[in-house]
Design goal:
Elements lengths: L8 H14 L5 H4 L2 E6 L2 E6 L8 E2 L4 E8 L2 E15 L3 E10 L3 E5 L2 E5 L5 E7 L2 E15 L8 E13 L3 E10 L3 E5 L2 E5 L4 E7 L2 E18 L3 E14 L2 E10 L3 E5 L2 E15 L2 E15 L7 E12 L2 E10 L3 E5 L2 E15 L2 E15 L7 E12 L2 E10 L3 E5 L2 E15 L2 E2 L3 E11 L7 E5 L2 E5 L1 H5 L5 E3 L12
Antiparallel strand pairs: 1-2, 2-4, 3-5, 4-5, 5-6, 6-9, 7-8, 8-10, 9-10, 10-11, 11-12, 12-15, 13-14, 14-16, 15-16, 16-17, 17-18, 18-20, 19-20, 20-21, 21-22, 22-23, 23-25, 24-25, 25-26, 26-27, 27-28, 28-30, 29-30, 30-31, 30-32, 33-34, 34-35
Length: 486
């Protein structure tokens, strides 16, 4: 009977030659010129008659081989590169075979479907048993990773994957993600998008590692007392038995916000250089556009915005940046009230909490003057704010005319410079310079004496002396000199 299997092209040519030679008069089983060798988990069909009582050189012989591997059948056809056959010790050969049907293998962490045009296997057979098979061609692969819900689902070309009885499949090669893959362990969750290229290592049916250089994905890290930090972009790193390791510069997925003590930081956009080792965030360099709200006990909240840079490690953020005022800041103490209108506040955040600020701002200040109106000033203030204490100062000018009335005197300041200093939050003595002013004095008394000469009145009295005045000289408005009697 003609056995039901597929013959390689060389075998078919020989068979056709036999049919022509014998004119088709031979029975079907006589038309097939083959030798069948059965061994451990295999059936080998050789094109040609090779009696087992003597040794035969099989180089160049067409062969069809069927191997049973882990309950699945691998069938291939080709030509023997080198080999020999004798009933004892059996057949040995090496050959590159084209797969007739897809080959499916599943054991341990690995599931493989090898098939498609150009797929094949290079086999080594000794003593009528398969010793090694090298797999190549189009492959679909699933690799399970301990602790993860779903496998790596991969597709691509396999080159150099090996199977050895008792050892299983081993393979290292570049392959493409067919589906999104999510890895989650500890405080880190990473999603790698389909279409990315990975180098996957499998040894003896066990997953060893998957490395990736720039696979588009998303990384989320749960930061204790801070919230979830989400980032996206090209992810580089590795997954192995110790967990996931990442070294990549990623884009912030806003918003990310945390509050510590009296400070709230709100990151709106930017990038982070992320280093993850064994499922733990080791370090993240930060360059972000952010908002900062600082609660101030002696005023309104200080609302800032701008670029922040720094690092996250050891459970906290260390950040610095020159931020602008988002709104005017109102500050009040018993000695003064102030409004910061614009400018720059250089902030320093240590272990996620506010440490200090350097201020270079335009301000309006009203200094409390006992028993008098507040002194209205404006101008540029510079200084620091740290540990709840303020050290700053500046040369300010009058915002408007300032009048002080005291008993019999009236002082009007039209302009000038006022040196204002706060030291540890306490107002220091004001320093006036370049004042433009007018002083009016009213003195009432009796018993005075005086004279008029050359357009000027001069007076002196005990009342004037009591006020510290030796005398007064008054020049009336209008023409000077004696009035003519004419």
């Amino acid at each position: 009977m003609l056995r039901n299997h597929t013959w390689p092209v060389p075998a078919l040519l020989v068979l056709l030659g036999l049919l022509v030679t014998f004119g088709g008069g031979i029975r079907a089983e006589e038309q097939v010129n083959e030798t069948v060798v059965r061994g451990e988990g295999m059936v080998v069909r050789l094109l040609g008659n090779f009696p087992g009582d003597r040794k035969h050189d099989l180089a160049g012989v067409a062969v069809t081989a069927e191997f049973t591997i882990e309950g699945e059948t691998l069938v291939g056809t080709g030509e023997i590169a080198k080999g020999t056959y004798q009933a004892k010790p059996g057949i040995k050969f090496s050959a590159d075979l084209d797969l007739i049907d897809p080959f499916v293998y599943e054991k341990g962490d690995v599931k493989i479907r090898l098939g498609g045009q150009g797929s094949g296997v290079s086999v080594t057979v000794k003593k009528s048993a398969l010793k090694k098979a090298v797999l190549s061609g189009a492959v679909e692969m699933e690799v399970a990773i301990s602790g993860q819900e779903g496998p790596l689902t991969l597709v691509g070309e396999m080159s150099g994957g090996t199977y050895e009885p008792g050892q299983g499949v081993s393979h290292v090669g570049s392959i493409t993600l067919a589906e999104d893959f999510e890895y989650s362990s500890g405080t880190v969750t990473a999603t790698l998008a389909s279409g990315g290229s990975l180098t996957v290592g499998v040894k003896k049916n066990r997953f060893k590692y998957a490395s990736f250089l720039e696979v588009q994905g998303e990384v989320q890290v749960a930061l204790l007392l801070h919230g979830d930090l989400k980032m996206t972009g090209p992810v580089g790193g590795k997954i192995d038995g110790a967990g996931i390791h990442i070294d990549a510069t990623l884009t912030l997925v806003p918003p990310f916000e945390y509050t510590k003590d009296k400070v709230t930081v709100r990151m709106k956009s930017g990038s982070l250089g992320v280093q993850v080792k064994s499922n733990k965030l080791q370090k993240a360099t930060v360059e972000v556009d952010a908002e900062m709200d600082v609660e101030v006990s002696e005023g309104s909240d200080l609302l800032l915005g701008g670029e922040l840079g720094g690092v996250y490690e050891n459970g906290g953020f260390d950040l610095t940046g020159n931020l602008g005022l988002r709104e005017e800041f109102e500050y009040h103490r018993p000695s003064l009230r102030g409004s910061l209108r614009s400018g720059v506040v250089g902030v320093e955040v240590k272990k996620s909490g506010f440490k200090s600020a350097f201020l270079d701002v335009e301000a309006e200040v009203d200094v409390t003057i006992p028993k008098a109106p507040s002194l209205p000033l404006e101008g540029r203030l510079r200084g620091t704010w740290a540990k709840g204490e303020t050290d700053l100062g500046g040369e300010l000018t009058l915002r408007k005319e300032y009048t002080v009335v005291d008993g019999t005197s009236k002082t009007v300041l039209h302009g000038g410079t006022v040196g204002l200093r706060l030291k540890k939050g306490k107002l220091q003595p004001l320093e006036f310079s370049d004042l433009v002013y007018r002083v009016e004095i009213v003195v009432e008394g009796s018993g005075g004496k005086g004279e008029y000469d050359d357009g000027r009145f001069t007076f002196e009295s005990e009342d004037l002396k009591n006020r510290g005045l030796k005398g007064l000289a008054v020049e009336p408005a209008g023409p000077t000199g004696p009035v003519s009697d004419e």
